[in-house]
Amino acid sequence: MIAVIQRVAESSVSISGNVSGSIDQGLLILLGIEEADNQEDVDWLAKKITQLRIFSDAEGKMNLSCMDVDGEYLVISQFTLHASTKKGNRPSYIKAARPETAIPLYNAFKSTISQITSKQVQSGEFGADMQVSLINDGPVTIIIDTRDRK
Q1: In Å, what is the CA distance from 32 to each residue of 79, 86, 133, 137?
Q2: 99-117 vs 39-51: helix crossing angle, rounded to 10
Q3: What is the set of active-site residues?
Q4: Smallest Cα–Cα separation from 62: which of 53, 51, 71?
Q5: Residues 84-142: pLDDT tens digits?
Q6: Contacts for 64 with CB less than 8 Å, ≥ 6 apart
Q7: What angle do CA 104, 109, 110 make, to 5 degrees?
Q8: pTM of the prediction?
């Protein structure tokens, strides 16, 4: 799994002009799932993201997690995070998981974040054409790949 995590002042996702999820202060998580991913990846990534200390404390240092600041979570599925650009100019998405693998893991990820934080996780719709808007706070953007657990 690859996640692009953005600390946001606010963010929302729309499908066909209708807002399907929105948050105020919190994390926008773009989530790419590949065929090799499993529940262990879901659990590790959800725990890592919820404990990331990327929010400012009273002294202005990034020392607080999203949970510490009572932040919210917006999760968007994004298979293009697994794009391969090795050959030619048209990306290949061969590593991205097929829907029968990705959808249960996407839903499990949202559920795990919700269980850890006791918050309802906002989201887009898997496979939909979505428009995502955000006000990136900082900006702070972190990329985590479960294949690189260092």
Answers
A1: 5, 18, 18, 22
A2: 40
A3: 78-80
A4: 53
A5: 888 889 898 988 999 999 999 999 999 999 999 999 999 999 989 999 999 999 999 99
A6: 53, 55, 56, 57
A7: 100
A8: 0.94
Which domains does the chain show, CATH number per domain?
Answer: 2-145 (3.50.80.10)
Distance in angstroms (rounded) separating the CA atoms of residues 41 and 45: 6
Task: Give 150's pLDDT tier (boundaries 50, 70, 90).
Answer: low
Cβ-proximal residues to 2 (8 Å cutoff; 6+ apart), any chain: 31, 32, 34, 81, 82, 143, 144, 145, 146
Please state whether beta strands 2-15 and 26-32 pair in parallel, antiparallel, or not at all (unpaired). Answer: antiparallel
Name the strand (E) or helix (H) holding 30: strand 26-32
Question: In whole angstroms, how far apart are CA 14 and each of 19, 120, 133?
Answer: 4, 18, 8
